[in-house]
Write a structure and sequence with these properties.
36 helices, EFG_II, alpha+beta, seven-stranded mixed sheet, ribosome binding
């Protein structure tokens, strides 16, 4: 039976909601000045877990939309395609007012997308917030994107609270009892806490390792568990008794925290609210005889307090209203709860309307969530010092090594002061485009009484003129008919008509032209003020990501401000904030000033800010650390206009799209193609729609997606294609066959291929010879290099600075990470052929930080290792290497060019080690030292020019660039260096050729980009899901059944090349019951050899002489070659006819 609850508590709740009516702009401006009562929060969740519906309920509490439309309107999904698809595609902010007792709060709420393609929008939202509401579906539980958003919140040091949503599905869909639902909810809490716990554990272990490395002396055994035991994780986990969990059904408008029920039952049962708060969630039950709350409900087979006092009430309400539609019971419930239900709600044919009317008054979800947010999430004043230091320390720079003035800004962050003397610090997380008509100054406003009267008078006058003109025209027509006048009498009327037509044409043209001008998009910066008071029209410094405050302070005069005439400083510019806006979902409200701790929109930064930036009135402020993006843009398409004359519009449109989307990238390749890079298929479709309808406003055609591949070599196979063991003779025969193919068309005096795979190339003027061998790297090493891209880039920057004689302040953490990388490589590269290999690494490539490396195996050449920054001052071997060091960079440049585009289909190499085993240079070729420095810079520039991802620029063009620059810089007086340039340029070309030939002398393979695909499906459609995966070269890793549901979770890998249209096909084949989430995972070697031909007798028998069965690797390789305009070797059958026989067909 339904437990009668005191009416007084319900009155309080309903009063609180009614009190939060439509808030005036003045009220919000007043609340902005109190940072202690400001909360900046975002809603994070997996796709379709109910973020936007929950946001609707919170927005409805402020009277912005009707509570009846909450969940149906999706107010913060303002784009048309968001409404059609039913998913959020961008972050939208809105400011809400909430009264909790005598305190008034301002909540800057940001709704974020849950689809993996738009996870970059989540990053932009998370950076501006101090807290987050994590929403989890009560049926689906923790999904991949739930883990991703929890990780993003953790990385940005923001505090999360939990809302377990869609509890109505446990009642209506899964038909669970209240006891089963309690067990199910416990499991979901455990899953969420497991994710949080793993993040916490990894952080603690990292900190302990750092401390250990600082204090350790000699070898000692270290117990990791001690760090975890000492660390305080009391506030880390989600638990209803801590008040950081709300149970809700946003679509039905109800939600509650345990505190609400604890207060209600403390009055009814005469038990202190504190006791109930600790016992309502957990293994406690009510002993009716002893009238005590006791532990051990599960062991004694009793109902837990949470089930008895909370869930049973909700279950019986759903049973009465929705399942049985028992009018008498519903009336009793309504009376006992003291809620008022309108007659039209009780008579409505849909029982959910009545349910929503009761629940939204009894347990309003906005009341539960907003009170939890105000009590549990931090204000801008509570920002942790650790978070501030993390924001201000970019790349390898340490906070304690930043200039003193910069370190003093930490106080401004922590105080969050809006005083006149406080420096203004603003971070722009993204730029978004708004129709100019939607700006407050251009918005249509209601007319005054005087204006209405004026318009009425004008309309009357116009009507009278029209009537007079019509009457005159009728009379003149009548006169013409009766008198039959000559055409001369009609002439004036004709003239007046022509004049009228020309006037109409001019006014139409002017109107059209004006309309086109008005349709321009305006860019608004999505930002937050961390310190100071930002005013309309204020000038600020825009700090680029590479801006160095130490350099800026040394170049700028003391006390310099952005409004002064500022000398030119690298990565520093000035701009004016034209307008400031309060972001209200679909609306913008203009503001004069915004104090610290608030989220705002800024107009006028489009010329200075591309995607994100740091703004400050102080040049001592460092740029903030870049945003953490979970999704990698990987889907590329080439775009061109339908009409070539509209190319300038496309270029402008793509520039605007690049600025408006935080994840999209726009490239112009050497071939002239305009390439758009996006995170996935849905993201690509949105970008193309935006380009077509908003930014370029022209018809465009997009190519098929450009799929990225990598090229690699593998160890020679031990079995052939029919799994027969390859004998030594056959192996040798195959290798000789490959060598013959390799050496065809090249003169043997400049190129020699050894049977062991060693390739020797001599440059045309015979002054230098290079011998290179390609060796496949172990898979673990390739993965390590790929993961450590940023670290290798930092290592290269440090080495470059040391070579140029500059001093660099590198953080201890970065140096430790570099040393750790070296130790890991040494551990993974074991065995005779890898002896001392790590010390002999010459360079990484391509772009000096890729997953390949060049190995120095030249006898007697002791050059500096790439790790020499770890032991500075060790200059041993420099004198001995001085003779040939001048051409050192030519070898590296040749290696970089070779790894940037491989011989198979001009795609970058991956997991290949090139070992230089011989390098001879004639002494007459050695130049003066000053020229070697110049050559160094030339080859750097040439390589930089060729560094466009997916570029189809050929090696000969790049070499031509090097030669051209070399000719341009030739000094006539340097006659002694004349022989230098041809040697250097030829050596680059020879090294590149040697690497390519060495690569071809080994078994070659293509590597495909792979998606991890997670699909939730019911048992009925499981077979169809497997069918679609099998057809698209997918591979199922594992499947498991979700406890308590009939849902299966399938985890699979799928090549990116086969993923286009995959989601649509899955949905069609399963009637919408399965929906996949695709996330880029890794690169995988395609096992088949694209150049394979049958060589053994068994292979001839199995595959036939032509062996023309489908070769997936060859298909991919030829597709890429065809797209790049390279030669494709394929048989084309022309004029194929059916075989004719002499006898007639009967």
């Amino acid at each position: 039976c339904f437990i009668c609850l005191p009416v007084r508590s319900v009155d309080y709740a309903s009063h609180s909601v009614l009190a939060m009516g439509l808030t005036s702009l003045d009220k919000i401006i007043a609340l902005q000045r109190n940072p202690a009562n400001t909360r900046n929060l975002c809603i994070l969740a997996h796709v379709d877990h109910g973020k936007t519906t929950l946001a609707d309920c919170l927005v409805a509490s402020n009277g912005i939309i009707s509570s009846r439309l909450a969940g149906k309107l999706r107010y913060l999904d303002s784009r048309e395609d968001e409404q059609i698809r039913g998913i959020t595609m961008k972050s939208s902010a809105i400011s809400l007012h909430y009264s909790n007792g005598d305190q008034e709060y301002l909540l800057n709420l940001i709704d974020s997308p849950g689809h993996v393609d738009f996870s970059s929008e989540v990053s932009t939202a998370v950076r501006l917030c101090d807290g987050a509401i994590v929403v989890v579906d009560a049926v689906e539980g923790v999904c991949p994107q739930t883990q991703a958003v929890l990780r993003q919140a953790w990385l940005e040091n923001i505090k999360p609270v939990l809302v377990i949503n869609k509890i109505d599905r446990l009642i209506m869909e899964l038909k669970l009892t209240s006891q089963e639902a309690y067990t199910h909810l416990q499991k979901i809490l455990e899953q969420v806490n497991a994710v949080t716990g793993s993040l916490f554990t990894s952080k603690v272990l990292e900190e302990r390792e750092e401390k250990e490395s600082e204090t350790s002396s000699g070898d000692q055994v270290y117990d990791w568990s001690t760090g975890l035991e000492e660390a305080d994780d009391s506030q880390l986990y989600f638990s209803p008794d801590q008040g950081n969990v709300v149970f809700a059904s946003a679509i039905d408008g109800w939600g509650f925290s345990i505190q609400q029920f604890a207060q209600i039952y403390s009055q009814r049962m005469g038990v202190r609210a504190e006791v109930l708060l600790k016992t309502l969630w957990g293994d406690f039950y009510l002993n009716a005889k002893a009238k005590k709350i006791m532990k051990g409900a599960q062991a004694k087979g009793k109902k837990q307090l949470f089930v008895q006092l909370v869930l049973d009430n909700i279950w019986s309400l759903y049973d009465a209203v929705v399942t049985r539609r028992d009018k008498e019971k519903v009336e009793k419930v309504v009376t006992s709860l003291g809620v008022k239900v309108m007659a039209r709600d009780s008579r409505h044919s849909d029982p959910k309307v009545l349910l929503s009317a009761i629940c939204s008054q009894w347990l309003p979800v906005s009341q539960a969530v907003l009170s939890m947010v105000c009590e549990k999430l931090p204000s801008p004043l509570d920002m942790a010092a650790e978070k501030v230091e993390k924001l201000m320390s970019v790349g390898a720079r340490r906070f304690d090594l930043l200039p003193e003035q910069t370190q003093e800004l930490k106080k401004a962050f922590l105080q969050c002061s809006s005083g006149e003397d406080a420096p203004a610090i603003v971070f722009v997380s993204k730029m978004f485009a708004v129709d100019t008509k939607a700006l407050p100054q251009n918005r249509q406003r209601p007319l005054t009484q005087d204006e209405i009267a004026q318009r009425r008078e004008l309309a009357r006058q116009r009507h009278a003129d029209r009537m007079t003109a019509d009457q005159t025209a009728t009379e003149s027509q009548r006169d013409l008919t009766h008198s039959g006048n000559t055409s001369q009498d009609v002439q004036p009327a004709g003239l007046s008509t022509g004049t009228l037509n020309s006037t109409l044409f001019i006014s139409f043209y002017f109107f059209k032209h004006t309309a086109e001008e008005e349709q321009k998009e305006t860019f608004i910066a999505f930002a937050r003020v961390y310190s100071g008071l930002v005013k309309k029209g204020q000038r600020v410094f825009v700090l680029g990501p590479k801006y160095d405050p130490a350099q800026g302070l040394s170049m700028l005069p003391e006390g310099c401000s952005a409004s002064d005439c500022v000398p030119e400083v690298p990565y520093l510019s000035c701009c004016s904030m034209e307008s400031l806006y309060l972001l209200m979902g679909r609306e913008l409200e203009e503001l004069e000033q915004v104090p610290a701790g608030n989220v705002l929109g800024i107009r006028g930064l489009e010329e200075c800010v591309l995607k994100s930036a740091t703004l400050s009135t102080s040049p001592a402020c460092p740029p903030f650390t870049p945003l953490n993006f979970e999704a990698t843009p990987i889907v590329r398409v080439a775009i061109e206009p339908k009409h070539p004359s509209e190319m300038p519009k496309l270029v402008r449109g793509m520039r605007l799209l690049n600025q408006a989307d935080p994840c999209a990238e726009v490239l112009i390749q050497e071939t002239g193609e305009h390439v758009l890079v996006t995170a996935g298929e849905v993201h690509l479709q949105r970008c193309l729609d935006d380009l077509r309808d908003r930014f370029a406003k022209i018809e465009i055609s997009a190519s098929k997606p450009i799929i990225p591949f990598r090229e690699t070599v593998v160890r020679p196979p031990k079995v052939d294609m029919v799994n027969e063991d390859l004998g030594k003779q056959q192996k040798v025969a195959i290798i000789h066959q490959v060598k013959e193919e390799v050496t065809q068309g090249r003169s043997s005096d400049t190129l020699h291929v050894d049977p062991s795979g060693l390739v020797t190339v001599t440059i045309p003027n015979r002054m230098a010879t290079v011998s290179v061998r390609a060796i496949p790297l172990p898979e673990e090493v390739t993965h390590l290099l790929e993961r450590s891209t940023e670290l290798i880039r930092s290592l290269e920057q440090v080495n470059m600075s040391l070579r140029e004689g500059k001093t660099v302040d590198v953080s201890l953490r970065t140096m430790e990470a570099i040393a750790g990388l070296k130790a890991q490589l040494e551990n993974l590269l074991q065995g005779r052929k890898w002896r001392n290999a790590v010390e002999r690494i010459w360079a990484f490539g391509p772009r000096r930080y890729g997953p390949n490396f060049l190995l120095n195996s030249v006898e007697g050449y002791q050059r500096l290792s790439v790790w020499h920054c770890l032991g500075r001052g060790d200059k041993a071997g420099e004198a001995g290497a001085a003779v040939i060091r001048d051409f050192d960079n030519s070898i590296v440049s040749g290696f970089q060019l070779a790894t940037l585009s491989g011989p198979m289909c001009e795609e970058p190499l991956m997991g290949v080690c090139f070992s230089v085993e011989r390098w001879d240079v004639q002494s007459s070729a050695v130049p003066q030292h000053q020229d070697s420095l110049e050559e160094n810079s030339i080859s750097h520039e040439a390589l930089a020019n060729s560094r466009v991802e997916g570029s189809t620029k050929t090696s000969s063009e790049v070499e031509g660039t090097v030669a051209g620059q070399s000719q341009a810089r030739r000094r006539p007086e340097a006659a002694s260096a004349d022989c230098y340039r041809p040697v250097s340029g030829q050596l680059i070309a020879a090294m590149k050729e040697a690497c390519r030939r060495a690569f071809q002398a080994q078994p070659q393979r293509l590597m495909a980009a792979m998606y991890t695909c997670e699909i939730m499906a019911t048992a009925e459609v499981l077979g169809r899901v497997y069918g679609v995966l099998g057809k698209r070269e997918g591979r199922v890793l594992h499947e498991e059944m979700k406890e308590g549901t009939d849902m299966f979770i399938i985890k699979a890998v799928l090549p990116v090349a086969e993923s286009f249209g995959f989601a649509d096909e899955i949905r069609k084949r399963t009637s919408g019951l399965a929906s996949p989430q695709l996330v880029f995972s890794h690169w995988e070697v395609i096992s088949s050899d694209p150049h394979w031909v049958p060589t053994t007798e068994e292979e001839y028998l199995h595959f036939g002489e032509k062996a023309d069965s489908a070769n997936q690797a060859l298909k991919y390789m030829n597709a890429v070659r065809r797209r790049k305009g390279l030669y494709v070797e394929e048989k084309i059958v022309e004029h194929a006819e059916k075989q004719r026989t002499l006898s007639k067909n009967k």
